[in-house]
Design goal:
By secondary structure, this protein is of the alpha/beta class. The chain is built from 11 helices and 41 strands.
């Protein structure tokens, strides 16, 4: 549990531990020997929660105690050199400054002044009330007399949002236009498969006033229908055209649909991609709904099935998947089978190695039966498709060279190949992943966010010598029936999966290797092992398969701490 050790009181015995300085107060928190090197510990100082960090070199720093992503306690995470890693979703902060180092943190952490005297650690906090846990990075206003350029960001998702913020944080004073096809400012799309009963106000990344205050022009409910890289112009679905100096394509993806017989105009066929989807599903699931078919057995489909069983108490849920077991393409057959066993123990049924042949609709336009390719009929009242996405790049088809999956190829600075003024980030970008030596496309929220930041910094750069490159470790998370699954790295292919721990105990780590080279790790119920792996991979200091095989489940944490 989180430590909330009080270091102050009104008793005279503690008076010497408190020094008032104007509106702040310096408080003795602990002895330097109370923390081990590499330890994080949360303290209650006056009315403020602070995270005390003691690095591997014995240096002390103090920051806000809650991750700025979902306000979860950082004390349970890992301190790697001067990097604080959140165990829940992999957000990373600089222990010295509190600055964001890697997504998905929203704001930086507050950094508290600290001093060491006579073997004791003192932290300075607000004298009255609680000190802020987080701080929004400083931004600038537009000044078109200073910078007459126009930067357009197409796509109001994770990458687009991160880009517009970063531009203003990096002192870009030109014009910024953010174009989104929904009628909402950027919001946390990840939550849609975790909870259906969401209001837009509860999941927006920034309120709409933020964009006005930072001179970010919003064009919502609008699509880009054409991009002309020669004239440096885009045409919009509202009939307008805009010129740009540099542009970022961050349009994400469109949900993959089932274009089979009976799918047209069905009123109970849903996807899970936009908040309107979640609202429609939530409205459709009344007390009379008892049978639902979910098409898709990877993360979105499985998260949706678990959500329906846990929150909506649907009695009959059948998942239809093309693979032999769920998650097989990403996690392999053994782990996929274990996850299927878990879901089946909760009452969810599966039809694997099957596809949908057609739907049967009643006279009201509702699907009543799902016919599989083996002619099995599944009775249903609702069909939800979670079968992945297709990059939303139709407006640059025949204009930019697209890959077979409709993605846009970039370099590791997120600039589109052979297009000096066009960048791409997030789900649409196929980029060189630095630790596997091949290009790939990764549909992770943290990857999109980090790439949006990188693209923005490079859009501002005066020349390529100032470019920064994508050097993060992709981190993915999901949770089902109270069990936390984490995935770090990226395994394009593998010929061995080493599982440390027992699958039946529902606590394990799996390492994915190709010719003895490890590039990914998945864990269940041991989040910090995955965090430690991600840091070891980032540092290029991974152990061998044999070392992992001959040590304990938690050993990677010890290995990281002892470096």
């Amino acid at each position: 549990t989180t430590s909330t050790t009080s270091t102050t009181s009104n008793s005279n015995s503690n008076a010497s531990n408190i020094i008032s300085i104007n509106n702040e107060i310096e408080v003795l928190v602990c002895s330097v020997n109370d923390l081990k090197n590499g330890q994080l510990k949360q303290f209650k100082v006056k009315e403020s929660s602070i995270l005390l960090c003691k690095t591997s070199k014995g240096e002390f720093y103090a920051t806000g105690a809650q991750c700025t992503h979902y306000k979860l306690p950082l004390e349970k995470g890992i301190l790697s050199d001067d990097r604080i890693l959140c165990p829940y979703h992999g957000a990373c902060f600089n222990a010295k400054t509190g600055d964001i180092e890697d997504a998905p943190g929203i704001d930086s952490l507050t950094s508290f002044p600290i001093s060491i005297r006579d073997g004791n650690v003192y932290v300075t906090v607000a004298n009255e009330g609680s000190s802020a846990q987080r701080r929004q990075p400083i931004t600038c206003k537009a000044d078109l007399n200073c910078d007459s350029r126009t930067f357009i960001i197409i796509g109001a998702g994770a990458a687009g949002w991160a880009a517009v913020e970063t531009l203003r944080q990096q002192n870009y004073k030109g014009k910024i236009i953010l174009i989104g096809n929904e009628n909402f400012v950027p919001y946390d799309r990840v939550k849609l498969s975790k909870s259906l009963n969401l209001s837009i106000d509860s999941i927006v990344l920034r309120p709409i006033n933020f964009y006005k205050e930072n001179d970010i022009d919003l064009i919502l409910s609008t699509k880009v229908i054409k991009l002309d890289p020669i004239l440096k112009k885009i045409d919009l679905s509202n009939g307008n055209s805009l010129n740009y100096d540099k542009i970022l394509i961050a349009t994400g993806g469109n949900p993959r649909l089932l274009n089979c017989e009976g799918s047209s105009n069905a009123n109970n066929l849903f996807t899970v991609r936009f908040i309107d989807d979640a609202e429609r599903i939530n409205k459709a699931i009344t007390n009379q709904i008892t049978n639902i078919v979910v098409v898709g057995s990877s993360f979105i489909g499985m998260e949706t099935a678990a959500l329906l069983k846990q929150m909506k108490k649907i009695s009959s849920i059948i998942v239809v998947g093309m693979e032999r077991v769920p998650f097989e393409r990403v996690l392999g057959p053994q782990i996929g089978q274990a996850m299927q066993d878990l879901f089946e123990s909760k009452g969810i049924q599966f039809r694997m190695q099957r596809t949908v042949k057609k739907f049967i609709q009643d006279q009201f336009g509702s699907i009543t039966n799902v016919i599989l390719d083996n002619d099995e009929q599944l009775i249903t009242q609702i069909v939800i498709v979670g079968a992945g996405i297709i990059p939303a790049t139709e407006f640059v088809n025949q204009i930019l060279p697209l890959e077979r999956d409709a993605s846009i190829v970039t370099d590791d600075s997120m600039r589109v190949l052979n297009q000096p003024d066009i960048f791409a980030a997030g789900d649409v970008a196929r980029f060189p992943l630095w630790f596997v030596n091949h290009t790939t496309r990764i549909e992770h929220w943290d990857v999109a966010q980090q790439q949006g930041r990188i693209a923005a910094i490079n859009m501002i750069a005066s020349d390529e010598s100032q470019f920064i490159k994508y050097r993060s470790i992709p981190f993915f998370w999901t949770q089902s029936f109270g069990l936390s699954l984490k995935y770090a790295g990226h395994a394009f292919n593998w010929n061995e999966i080493l599982i440390v721990g027992k699958i039946e105990d529902k606590k394990w780590a799996a390492y994915f290797a190709n010719n003895n080279i490890i590039t990914a790790c998945a864990t269940l119920s041991c989040d910090n092992v995955c965090l430690a792996f991600s840091e070891l991979l980032r540092k290029q200091q991974l152990p061998t398969l044999e070392q992992l095989r001959s040590n304990t489940l938690e050993w990677p944490i010890s290995l990281l701490n002892n470096q």
